[in-house]
Amino acid sequence: MIIAAKTITALVALIHVYILWIEMFAWTTTGRKVFRNFPKDLFIPTKQMAANQGLYNGFLAAGLIWSLLISDVDWSRNVALFFLGCVTVAGIYGAISVSKKILIVQSIPALIGILLWSIL
């Protein structure tokens, strides 16, 4: 079960590394393709704001990766649960305020990770 918990945690971390990359480095290129409902004329004016959001996604990814590097299982679980909880809350807020798709992309995988870590 620990392999499944660590695998989903790694997947959630990778999702957030990808979001970091889009928001910090590819907002006006790949961002236009990913965020199709966002007004095209606002990508350039919001580039710095998106980069700031990307940095926060990077912090989530860093915490999740950190949890995978901790050798003590209890500590690893606690750190993973904290950051997966943060991802879940952020995804729920994003689903309410921006798009329901955020719930599927971010919150559902994080909730699966929480479930897997909780049953260890």
Commentary on this structure:
It is a single chain. This protein is 79% helix and 0% strand. The protein has one domain (2-118). It is built from five helices and no strands. It has helices at 2-25, 30-34, 47-69, 73-97, 101-118. The longest helix is centred in the C-terminal third of the chain and has 25 residues, at 73-97. With 120 residues, the protein is an all-alpha fold. This is Putative membrane protein. InterPro entries: DUF1304.
Q: Total domains, how many?
A: 1
Rg over CA atoms = 15 Å
Number of strands: 0
Helix and strand run: HHHHH
Q: How would you summarize the topology of this molecule?
A:
Elements: H1 2-25, H2 30-34, H3 47-69, H4 73-97, H5 101-118
Helix pairs in contact: 1-3, 1-5, 3-4, 4-5
Provide a compact summary of the structure.
This protein is mainly alpha-helical and 120 residues long. The protein has helices at residues 2-25, 30-34, 47-69, 73-97, 101-118.
Salient structural properties:
120 residues, mainly alpha, 79% helix, Putative membrane protein, transmembrane helix, membrane, transmembrane, DUF1304
